[in-house]
Design brief:
Helix content is 63%, strand content 0%. It is mostly helical.
């Protein structure tokens, strides 16, 4: 094998490795940003139940 073809193959491998590393870093940053946004959301109040806690007359 020629030296230039070996170097070209290694360069392609290096480019792929760098691209994967950059994509992983971007994914981690987006995940962190999404988690922070979710933490900053105001806590929702629980809705009151329509009949729970009210008196129901079942006598005839």
């Amino acid at each position: 094998m020629e030296l230039s073809s070996i170097m070209a193959s290694q360069l392609l491998d290096l480019q792929q490795t760098v691209q994967l590393s950059v994509m992983q870093s971007a994914l981690n940053m987006h995940t962190t940003a999404a988690v922070e946004m979710l933490r900053e959301l105001p806590q929702q109040q629980t809705a009151t139940h329509p009949i729970k806690g009210t008196a129901i007359d079942v006598s005839v």
